[in-house]
Amino acid sequence: QTTTSFYEAVGGAETFRRLVSVFYREVAADEILRPLYPEEDLGPAERRFRMFLEQYWGGPRTYSDERGHPRLRMRHNPFVVGPLERDAWMRCMRIAVGEIEPSILDDEHRKALLDYFQMAAASLQNAP
Ligand code: HEM
Question: Which of 3, 62, 89, 128 is such that its CA lies 20 to 30 A from the CA of 81?
Answer without folding.
Answer: 62
